[in-house]
């Protein structure tokens, strides 16, 4: 929208445009406010609530959960895609080739997020197994404590050895009386 304030301020649009920095090369103030307003409207419109019920949302959620590595992958893919597109200007099917690059890039983003999720799940499972082994080792160090009878107090997945020791002492005291 271009305006000169109904003739009262000639050159208003030109001056405002220079101040707000509306060019696509830089993230100017106007573009930032526009993005934030759009994000606000989409969030409060209920569209995200409806999307959460669809199967399309799951991959998007996964990509969002690993946003920084996916973003870094995107920057590398952008550079590679620019080189590939520049070198293939002689192709007769420019639109189909561009669409293939976009779909391939989205697929790579999803695969990166999926790989990171699998790696995290594997590392959590290994950590959980190590914590259980440590708990069993600590509990078996106290012969008065039956592993079937106690439920060790855990803090972050690691058994509290003081709680196990206190329980063993109480049991010893109960047997003595």
Shape: elongated
- Main beta-sheet annotation: 2 strands, antiparallel
Low-confidence sequence ranges: none
- Helix and strand content put the structural class at mainly alpha
**Strand order in the largest sheet:** 1-2
Give helix and strand order, one letter per element, not per position: HHHHHHEEH
Overall mean pLDDT: 76
* Radius of gyration, CA atoms, in whole angstroms: 30 Å
**In terms of quaternary structure, what is this?**
single chain
N-C termini distance: 90 Å
Can you count the helices? 7
What helical percentage do the residues reach?
Answer: 55-70%
What is the number of E strands? 2
> Beta fraction of the residues?
under 5%
Features:
single chain, 177 residues, mainly alpha, two-stranded antiparallel ribbon, 7 helices, 69% helix, elongated
If you had to describe this structure to a student in words, what would you say it looks like?
The protein has a domain at 1-45. Strands 1-2 form a two-stranded antiparallel sheet. 69% of the residues lie in helices and 2% in strands. The protein is an all-alpha fold and 177 residues long. The mean pLDDT is 76. The protein has seven helices and two strands. Helix 4 (57-65) packs across helix 6 (94-140) and helix 5 runs antiparallel to helix 6 (94-140).
């Amino acid at each position: 929208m271009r305006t000169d304030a109904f003739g009262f301020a000639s050159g208003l649009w030109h001056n405002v445009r220079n101040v707000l920095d509306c060019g696509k090369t830089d993230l100017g103030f106007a573009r930032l406010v526009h993005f934030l307003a759009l994000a606000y409207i989409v969030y409060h419109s209920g569209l995200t609530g409806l999307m959460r019920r669809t199967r399309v949302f799951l991959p998007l959620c996964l990509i969002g959960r690993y946003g920084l590595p996916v973003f870094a992958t995107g920057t590398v893919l952008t550079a590679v895609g620019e080189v590939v597109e520049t070198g293939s200007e002689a192709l007769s099917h420019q639109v189909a080739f561009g669409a293939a690059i976009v779909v391939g890039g989205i697929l790579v983003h999803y695969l990166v997020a999926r790989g990171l999720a699998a790696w995290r799940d594997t590392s959590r499972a290994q950590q959980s197994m190590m914590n259980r082994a440590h708990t069993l080792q600590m509990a078996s160090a106290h012969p008065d404590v039956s592993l079937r009878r106690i439920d060790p107090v855990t803090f972050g997945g690691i058994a509290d050895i003081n709680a196990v020791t206190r329980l063993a002492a109480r049991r010893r005291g109960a047997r003595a009386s």
